[in-house]
Design brief:
homodimer, Multidrug-efflux Transporter Regulator, Chain: A, Domain 2, elongated, DNA-binding
DNA sequence: GTAAACCCTGGAGCTGGCTTTACGTCAAGC
DNA sequence: GCTTGACGTAAAGCCAGCTCCAGGGTTTAC
């Protein structure tokens, strides 16, 4: 799979894919004899994982740490798990905060509905009284 | 209320408060004769609102639009509501995505637990067989 | 065999959102 | 009356995370 196919498949720009690889978020991708990237299934898996984690707000740096540990093998299992646990907690906190903001927006929108109706009634009254 | 009190109260830096005001996210705050900001209750309300919305991911620009509409009065009620509805949908989508990433992290963490246990057993076995 | 369409790299540039800097004013305590 | 420290402004700087560009090598289609 070449880079533009992967780009389309995951909705990440070609530049971003190269950037992620350069930054070590994705292991170095195999190249064809002429030097073109050829993404394996596994590479795609990493791309998808990174995309998902980035969208959830994990930093480039954190993800780089994770993959670095990953490639050190089994003896980093505990560290990797700890990293994930920490990020999971952060994510949970972000979600909770956003949930309550969502509720707040819902409430505000409801209020607006009420006010808009009231405003329209007011207009109607004025028109009738003419 | 002066700027440093508001800063402490809401956990936004003094610089950020000035920045928000300059960018029009917060209405211009009343000044003392000598030009120092003196935040009213209402100002504080805006600060709190903006802080909350920023944390939920609404852009500076969107919030500026909202407050601009707000100060045009009642005839922008519908527009303001629409803006909030759009942002609400975006927020909901972000939350949903993050929820599923959270679930994914939970799953991964569980897997790690299993693997760590397996790894420890392996070590134990090796030690016994010596 | 040549133009069009990809791909490569390294490095510069951009964007959003603050943060720092440089420099000046003012109020309070000593 | 002088220092100290909080406040003011404008403008430059900074950081994360891309995004674009120049310059050059392939591959593909005609």
């Amino acid at each position: 799979m070449n880079i533009s196919e992967v780009s389309k498949k995951y909705g990440l720009s070609i530049d971003t894919l190269r950037y992620y690889e350069k930054e070590g978020l994705i292991p170095p991708v195999r190249r064809s004899e002429s030097g073109l990237r050829d993404y394996s299934e596994q590479d795609c898996g990493w791309v998808e994982f990174i995309k998902c984690m980035r969208a959830a707000g994990l930093s480039i740096d954190t993800l780089r740490q994770y993959i670095t540990l990953y490639f050190k093998g089994n003896r980093t299992l505990q560290k990797r798990k700890n990293l994930l646990v920490v990020e999971r907690e952060k994510l949970k906190a972000r979600i909770d905060e956003m949930q309550s903001t969502l509720a707040r927006l819902d409430y505000k929108i409801e209020m607006y509905e009420g006010r808009i109706v009231a405003c329209e009634k007011e207009l109607l009254k004025k028109r009738k009284s003419k």
